[in-house]
Amino acid sequence: MNLSATQNRAGLALMAPAVVLAVIFLLIPLTAIFILAFTNYQLGDRALSFIGLDNFRDLAGDPTFWRSLTNTLIYSAVVVPGSVALGLASALLIDSGQSMRSFYRTVFFLPVMASLLAMAVVWEFMLHPSFGIVNAAMKAMGLAPHNWLKDGSIALYVLAVIGIWQSFGFNMVLFMAGLSAIPRDLYDAAEIDGAPNAWTRFTLITWPLLAPVTVFVAITSLIRSFQVFDTVQALTQGGPNKSTEVLLYTIYAEGFEFFRSGRAAAITVVFILLVVGVSLLRFVSLKKNGERS
Q1: How many CB atoms lie within 10 A of CB 12?
Q2: For the whole model, what pTM was predicted?
Q3: Which of 114, 168, 207, 279 reaches 20 to 30 Å from 216, CA-CA?
Q4: Which residue ranges of the chain lie beneath pLDDT 50?
């Protein structure tokens, strides 16, 4: 009993730093956000008043909020399938190669490790309407140049392309982990049974066995795409005419430009509920895959 009590105390002592950090940096801020969402607090005020659900009622009739929510969903609808498909294709190409596999893995993973703000500056230079390399290439092909980040009809999709470029390397690593778990004997057996074609082997073996990984990658990519902020802040500031404003940027603008902290907290609550809903979807999918296995 003494040994067990000692082990329990040792375990609690080891857990204590993580618990304290979680309380300070997670639970307390979340509690403060949920409280502020029901107040009219403005940054710098010494007093606040509880106004119930007024902030949420205002959001329900606010076109800016709905525009940012719609932009977030459109951005995710482009980035998720694009980054998942490109990540899978890259993983398959590297897995099937015989040489320089480590080199290609490193090159494709570099955008994930790079500072997105620094890369945003590079993208801004590349997309510059006057001397950017993208418009220079279009001129060389006889096409008209374009002001990519100032055209409200395409600016959000340009940011989505940058998002795909930045995130597909992470998905590639996850897919490569899934590919490494597939027994090679299955491919040999399929070839013996008359499926020598690579596409046939992919549809019969690779794709079905990668289904759990694909679901995990897709939901993880969806959560990451909801969190887009850096490229919006660095390249467009939500413009032109709020065509690229997303939820996180709206939260930033409400809280730190207009100082409406209560309203920003209400949008944050909506954002948290959205992310939690997707996270629960991932949990359910992983649980179902575990039961099947």
Answers
A1: 10
A2: 0.89
A3: 114
A4: none
